[in-house]
Signal recognition particle protein (Parablautia intestinalis), 451 residues
Amino acid sequence: MAFESLTDKLQNVFKNLRSKGKLTEEDVKTALKEVKLALLEADVNFKVVKQFIKAVEARAIGSDVMNGLNPGQMVIKIVNEEMITLMGSETTEIKMQPGKSITTIMMCGLQGAGKTTTTAKLAGKLKQRGKKPLLVACDVYRPAAIRQLQVNGEKQQVDVFSMGDNQSPVDIAKAAIEHAKKNSHNVVILDTAGRLHIDEDMMTELQNIKEQVDVHQTLLVVDAMTGQDAVTVAKEFDDKIVIDGVVLSKMDGDTRGGAALSVKAVTGKPILYVGMGEKLSDLEQFYPERMASRILGMGDVLSLIEKAQENISIDEDKEKEMAARLKKGKFDFNDYLESMKQMRNMGGLTSILSMLPGMGKQLGNIESMIDEKQLAKTEAIILSMTPDERKNPKLLNLSRKSRIARGAGVDMAVVNRFVKQFEQSQKMMKQMPGMMGGKRRGGFGGMRFPF
Ligand SMILES: Nc1nc2c(ncn2[C@@H]2O[C@H](COP(=O)(O)OP(=O)(O)OP(=O)(O)O)[C@@H](O)[C@H]2O)c(=O)[nH]1
C-alpha cells in the first residue's frame, strides 16, 4: 500500500504526542526529530525535509499551540497543513485551450516510467470530461510502443494516430494536428519516446517537437517507486525542456512516498495525476490535501478536529460576550459552564466516528482528545455549587468544598485545585486585559482541567 511505512511511523510519533496533556518545547522538538527521520527514510529530499521541519517548528513552538486545548492535536494539524503546502496546496488541472482550438499535450519520460499507459489513461479521463482526444505515436524507436498505444487506445475507445517508424516525431506530430483539425478532435496527446537515461538526443528531440509544434502542456511521467531518482529526473527535464506538471506513476507500489512529497518543492512544478495501478482506469487526480491525509493516515481525525472547532464557534455571539467579560476579569463559573457546554458539543461526534470505516484504530485517540469524562466531572463540580458560589468562588469554604466534592464524586483535592486555578485565572485576566481577544478557542484563560 502506498506510504505504508511512512504512515506507520508518523502515527507512532503522533500517538506519543497525543498521550501528553501538555507539551514542552522539548516534547515538540523530539517529535519533530522523529518526523524528520521518518521523512528521510521515506526518501524525501533532505533539503525539503529540513525546510519542512523548520516551518512546522516555527509554528508549533509557541504559547498559542502549547497552551491550547489539545497541543498534541495542534502540532499534528500543523504537520498536516505544512504537508499540503509542500505538495502544492491546490489541485492543478490540465489547462485547455479556449473555444474550438486544439490543446496539444506532450507526454515525456524515461523508458518504462509508464508513459504510454498513462497517455491512454489520461485520454480516458479527458473523454469522460467530454473531450475528443487523439493519441499520437511519436515513439519511432520502439515499434512495440506504437502497438501498445494502439491497443490501449482501442481499449479506451480513443483514436490513435500513427505513421509507423519511418518519419520524424516532429513530422508525425504536425500531421497528427492536421488530422485532429479535420476530425474535430480537441485534444492531441503526443506519446514521445523514452530512453533508459536522460541524454542529449532525447532532450533535443523533445525540444524540436515543442518548438515546431504548438505544444500547450508538457507533462512528465515519473515512476514513484524510484523515489528521489524520480525527483532528479523531473528537475532535469524541467531544466532542459520546461515541463508544466508531473504524473507520478506506480504510486500503488510506492510504500515510501518520497517522490510525491518532494516533486513540487524541488521542481516548483505540480503533480497533476497519480497512477494507482496497471488498469487504464487507475489514474487519479492529485489532491495535495487528500494525499497529506492519506500519508498521515488520519484524514478523518483531521476533519473531526475541524468539525469540533466549528462546533465550538457555533455560538459566536456568546463567545464574543464571554470574551468581553473575560477581558474585564468578570468571568465566573457560569461562563466556565457555558464554555464546557460548547466543548461538549464535540462529544457527540465520537459516536459518529465509530461508524466511519477504518476508524477503529483511531477511536482511542479521539476519545482522549475529547475526554468526555473530564468534561463531565468538571461540569459536576460547578453544578454542585450554589448560584452565588458560581459567581463568587470566595464563598467556597472548606466544608462547602467538601460537600461539592462528594456531590460531584471527586476528591476534595480536585475541587481545591480547580477553585484555586480558577481564581488564579481570574486574577490573570484582570492583570492582562485583552488576552482573550485573539483567535484562541476553547481555552479558558489558559486554565486546564483540574484532573
Ligand atoms: N502498478 C502500476 N503499474 C504501472 C502503472 N503505470 C504503468 N505501469 C506499468 O509499468 C510498465 C511500463 O509502462 P509503459 O507505459 O510501457 O511505460 P513507458 O514509459 O511508456 O515505456 P516506454 O514505452 O518503453 O518508454 C507497464 O507494465 C505498465 O503496466 C501504475 O500506475 N501502477
Observations:
- Confidence is low (pLDDT under 50) at residues 299-307, 310-314, 347-364, 433-451.
- The longest helix spans residues 412-431.
- The chain has three domains: 4-86, 103-287, 299-431.
